[in-house]
Model the fold of this input.
Amino acid sequence: MSTSQDVRSSPATVTFSIVPPFWRTAWFLPLVALVLASVAIVFHRARLARLLALERVRTSIATDLHDDLGSTLSRISILSELARRHATESAHERILREIGETSRSLIEALGDNIWAVNPRRDHLQSLVDRVCQFAADLLEAQSIAWRLDAPADARAIVLEPEVRRHLFLILKEALNNAAKHSRASALTLLVEKRGRALHIDITDDGIGGSVAPAVSGSRSGGRGFRNMHERATRAPRKARDRERSRRRHARRAGHPAVIHSGRITNHDFDARPCRGG
Amino acid sequence: MTSTRVLVVEDDPGLRDSVRLLFEDTPGFDCVGAYANAAEALEHLSRGTDLVLMDINLPGEPGSKAVARFRDARPDLSIVMLTPYDDEDRIFE
Done:
């Protein structure tokens, strides 16, 4: 056995390359970015299409309500008035008057609903205009001087339809209460921004009263206050009411005034007046 | 007493008839015609008409254009437009 001669040979060489996992390839990240961007664009377009479709539906509902129901109710109101003028018996006259009043109140409610769903009215200024119109009709008929202060840029403050509708109905109820029960001679409605909240305060110089029993369900309270409370708690975007009563020296009679206020978030403004009486 | 002579323009037939009946039944007013559109009403517009009561939404042309045509025909005519909308842009147009 000889070991004098070593056998030498060149080392075996194996060449290979390690294929990186697909997520570490050069094309993967750009591809993922492209896919994500495409998905985002598709979602954005779908959302935009849904919003446009919703706006078309709202416009269509507003138009149909006006054209169909509005004209029919107006006709009922006019015909009942004509029939009442010629009614020979007092019972007929009373019934016809009720038909007329009912159809007129339906026309008013219809107008509120048309306004609520109209996409061109989705701003605070529209709410302020409608409240001014309502206050002028209601309060001036009873010789109540009134003033409304609202932000100058209210048109730029977006209010969702449901919030806008609830706020308007709450304010209508409050103004109706003041007109019917307060015996006030002056009323102030103040809309202002406090931090991130929108506050609406109605103050009158009338006889005042407490809303607490009504809100808690007491029989002594009016249904109107409960309705206002329920509307405020039903309104989305965390809208809520903070109904309260507090004693305040009235300008003339020295009676407490009732304050109602609503609160909603995310708005900015300063005051713009509107008044009457 | 001289009655106010009113011309009614309203596309809804039921409402048009009701408004016409209301004017005919109200002392001090006389309905001289009730038409479905402004073109038809303009054809029948007489010098004796004092007032036009018209819907702001009329078939065929916007109420604002119809007003301009009534004004061209009779600059002294009083026109009352009816709208349930609180749309300032449309109303002031």
Observations:
- Residues 25 and 31 of chain B are 9 Å apart (CA to CA).
